[in-house]
Amino acid sequence: MNKTALGVVFGGKSSEYAVSLHSAASLLRQIRTERYAITMIAISKEGEWFLYEGSIDALEHDRWQQEKCTPCALTHDGLLILHEGSYEIRHLDCIFPVLHGKNGEDGTIQGLIEMAGIPVVGCGALSSALCMDKDRAHKLASLAGVEVPRSVCFSGLPSQAELETLTRSLTFPVFVKPVRAGSSFGITKVENPANLRAAVRDALRYDREVIVEE
């Protein structure tokens, strides 16, 4: 039986880089290798792409760059692998992005894969971008008649007085979140307005916009 050539992408320029490594390791241990020919594609924290040919254990514990890595880039219909003094193009039937947070779940990698003409596992660029944006996802759901929590969205760090005015219509406790980040970092449950500004400051470490919701 011909195997499906599957690229698995992990790592990435995201605060959830380490989460991605654990997810990718779990996936790779479960894939039925009698059906799929796996190409492991690693993206460093700096955004460099590599064909990874090391162990799953090293991947999971962030030691993958100490094993065999070859620079690569996505190209039409597959992967451009940059050997010293030569190159190789490896066809991929499909790519499975196992990336978390920004530059992984927000439509960026999905759009890149779609531009390369390669089928992608999971959501496409538009749905990924919309669902990663907590404010716009709420608005779309609300327009469709789905009840959503009351919230306010803003950019930058308001003063304490401005924050209290912005959140006056909300009932505490509230949750403070980066608008376009994952669900692991920068999220704080706030019991009273006095603690709101510190939570907003923390959320701004991960995105330029913040949502405060009941």
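That was protein one. Protein two is written in the same sequence-then-structure order:
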Amino acid sequence: HLGHSFPTRRSSDLLSSHIRAANKNYVGLLGYIDDLFAKYSRLLVLRVDFSYGEGRLEIEGCQEGRDRQDVLKLVSEKIIRHRTELLGYLKNKCPNLGLVGYVWKLEYGKEKGHHYHMIFFMDGTKVRQDIVIAKVIGKYWSDVITAGQGIYYNCNGDKSRYKYCGVGMINYQDRKSVV
């Protein structure tokens, strides 16, 4: 027998690991939000989901393992570059938006492909009109950053669909009700 025996992780171990990581991220997010409220009495919270049109960033057509890895690497680099460009634009070219923080989560789904869920925190004493601002950010993503390949969903535009709405204008006193 020339093969090697490598220890494998059971699926329950992997699940536990993912749950621990998710809990750690959640606790970190709550701390981040508390830190923001320690500095700002009101936050205008925007959530915008960013993705790409169907078939625009696909790796499914690549059959060979090596080709698939190369394409996935290029796609990953492009997605990261797009996020970096968007955040740079908001920080450097839009100081009037009062951006004070942001978080993101990158996901991959069979139907939606690669997509970001992003939350932007604005100084609520300086800006209002969350739906309009989120739309402007989304249009910049789709029209400029991705040159027409990207699409977005303005979650602030349909607050009624959320059981616990954590977007819009949030006051310091109300922050615990949205977490």
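The mean pLDDT is 83. Keep this in mind for the problem set.
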